Amino acid sequence: MPIAEDPRIPFGNFAFQVTFEGVDGEEFAPAGGVDEALFGGFSEISGIEATMEHKVIKVGGRNYGAAVRAGPVTFGTVVMKRGMVRSRHLWRWWSMFAGADGASDARPIKANRCNVVVGLISTIGDDSEEDKQPGVRIGWFLRNAMPVKFRAGDLNAKGSEVAIEELHLVHEGIDMLGIGE
Fold it and tell me: 58 to each of 69, 70, 72, 73, 169, how far by Cα in Å?
């Protein structure tokens, strides 16, 4: 079995990519025809989490603990830090929701939402070095995402911050993308 397909080897969390896609096959409106290859990347992503609030039900005659049932699920705010982006699509996206674009009047529409894919990159191919190609092997799909915070880096001639310090996203669900899917 090629090493890249061995299910016993964990994926590293240091090599990943982020893509922004339109919802239900629609174009991601803020991109405005910008080539997806120009979107850039982030050096850190946190908050990909889902928490289910369980319900405890006490049942008479059941002395060895209460019955536990599934409850509603909440999702964490995804925080993307230290981004390098060559186009203004992420600012346009934020401004559509905040009303800063002067056109949408802070009324989000379906075309303003997007799906975000955070994919872990691993080597694909057989064991020979010349045949190995990097590619997304596993990752997370954030459904119907919306930006809730945009933070620019401090302007300092001596600093090393990047243009987008943080972008916070809320979403309506997480799906895990697996090998071969």
Answer: 11, 14, 19, 21, 38
User: What single letter denotes the amino acid at residue 131?
Assistant: D
Residues belonging to the chain:
181
What six digits make up the tokens of 8? Answer: 């016993």
pLDDT, tens digit, 9 for 90 and up, residues 37-94:
445 578 888 999 999 999 999 988 888 889 999 999 999 999 988 876 656 777 777 7
CATH class of 3-177: mainly beta
